[in-house]
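#help-structures
NK: newbie question, is this the right format to request a structure? protein is Iron ABC transporter substrate-binding protein
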Amino acid sequence: MVLASVSSALATTYPLTIENCGDKETFTKVPERVVALGQNTVEVLLLLGLQDKMVASAFWPTKVLPQLAEQNENHQINSRLS
């Protein structure tokens, strides 16, 4: 017999405060735009279907994963941030 557990995701409520490395950041609503500095972050956003929220990215040491090429088609990589 195989037992499978099903977990349900909890809805995020706002305001949401995140603490990281001793700093706190509070979001009053769902972020509308995101900048991903690394390729790995972009690939996670693509996997989550959030390509429409990405406005910029930088540092791509390799090509995007083949299975993400279509989602990444309209994404512009900004190698220089100023």
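mod (FA): yep, format's fine, and the tokens are attached above. Strands lie at 16-20, 23-27, 34-36, 54-57.
NK: thank you!
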